Fold this sequence. Notes:
- By secondary structure, this protein is mostly helical.
- Helix content is about 55%, strand content about 0%.
- The model is unreliable at about 10-20 (pLDDT under 50).
Amino acid sequence: MIEFVPIDNIGEMQRMERMDRMSRMGEEKQYAVNAEDASFLDIFRGMVDNVVETNEQVDRDAIDLMLGNIDDVAQVQANITKAEVAVELLVTVKNEALSAYNSIINMQI
């Protein structure tokens, strides 16, 4: 069972650290690394950013569709498909990276 401890003084609570500001929707992202020098982490971060951007676009499309601001439903469906493919690709790369890591860990030396 979980016990909740009451806090008598608000000063006893630890302050949360401030998060970095997110870029505005539609704002171009600047990457500091070119393709030849990119590490796996840089590529993976780019994939995560792509998933976030495509999902934001789908959210904007859904709002615009509900408001009646979109006439081209095919473009909305294309954006949904892009978001699905981006998520599937990210999950596949993550699974393959974990599989490779587990293979390396289980190697006999």
